[in-house]
Amino acid sequence: MSDLSSLKLFATAPHPCSYLAGEEATTVFIDPAARIDQALYSELSQLGFRRSGGHLYRPHCASCQACISCRIPVQLFRPSRSQKRCIKRNSDLDIALVDNIFTDEHYQLYADYIHARHSDGDMYPPTREQFETFLSPEWGATRYIEYRLKGQLVGVAVCDQLNDGLSAVYTFFDDSQSKRSLGAYAILAQIEKAHALGLKYVYLGYWIRHCRKMAYKTQYRPLEMLVNKRWVRLN
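The structure assignment produced for this chain is given below.
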């Protein structure tokens, strides 16, 4: 175990929340100068921290505790009927682990995805620098999973391998393939990957009850949520 008490935390000034209208958000970051490795990253993930680029952060809002960390216990997970259909629909995809996604092909898919799905968000408009900084490999933990249809790149899942699980960092995909539900399939594939590696969890980041964009996370059951510093299982 690492000595977490020695880590310095820095807080942002209050700013408009990206997820809940009318709310102010404050975020705490681990000191960027701290020496992070896979073991420390794993411990911080168990405490509800997430990664964005080379930064580890956690919400720390004065008047709101809506952001709840969640993870899937992969050994207990059983796909629903709709999730089984999603797996079957995508059985013709070729899946591969790759070391690098910073090519023109990958960036174009990312940029098209941001334009199609997130033109109202903080990541719009997309830039090459933003893409490479946000999805950079960190601390020897990052894995890139490609999804191809007859050679054509249709999706990429970025995840980090922790000591006890995979942390789903980001997924982007071809929006014209909407019937495939590639976002859902990427999570299901990461669950299967974690299971094959003998890992216990897939960390999904934060769930917010009144945020429509976060609602999909509760479709994976059982789901564990970090409440009052304890992981609580919802069946």
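Interim note for the steering committee: The first helix runs from residue 38 to 46. Residues 8 and 31 are 5 Å apart (CA to CA).
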